[in-house]
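INTERNAL AUDIT FORM
Audit reference: QA-55
Scope: verify that the stored structure record matches its stored sequence.
Auditor: D.O.
Record contents follow.
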Amino acid sequence: MSDPSIRRATADDHAALIAMITAFQDFETTLHPNRRPGAEIAADYLAILEREVAAKRGAILVAERAGAPIGFVCCWADHDADEMIHAETRPHGYIADVFVTAAERGHGVGGALIAAAEAYLAGLGFMRVRLISLAANADARAVYEHLGYRAYEITYEKPLGGRPRGGRD
């Protein structure tokens, strides 16, 4: 199988990105009960990604094979506000989302997308990059670790019971 081509997303990719975000979110609903269905959030989430990219020197990159989109990655400049770490290590690149269509998984597309995002972020002058994965997404975590990513922080969660109230009385 030939390597996919990777390019910056354009307005012509809007429908394909919505479809991929929907599939991505629907997959994540199988991993954690707090995830909303993809159709409910895809358009709004794409708008959020586009705003973040515009505000933070980012990019949405699309992988395609034979002219058909098969995945995407979204990345941008970020900054750690944590006063406990060295100031020079606070700026970093951030990979917000990586998605590969089901038929293309296991063929190196995710790694190619991540490499393209890393190259983009390195071009902005960043020396490191971060990304986040749901803990239950073992396949994605395995890919990230294979590519040299290591856990930096781990967030734990414990349900307290009762109805969700958002912390409001």
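Auditor finding: record pair retrieved intact. The chain is about 35% helix and 20% strand.
Action required: none
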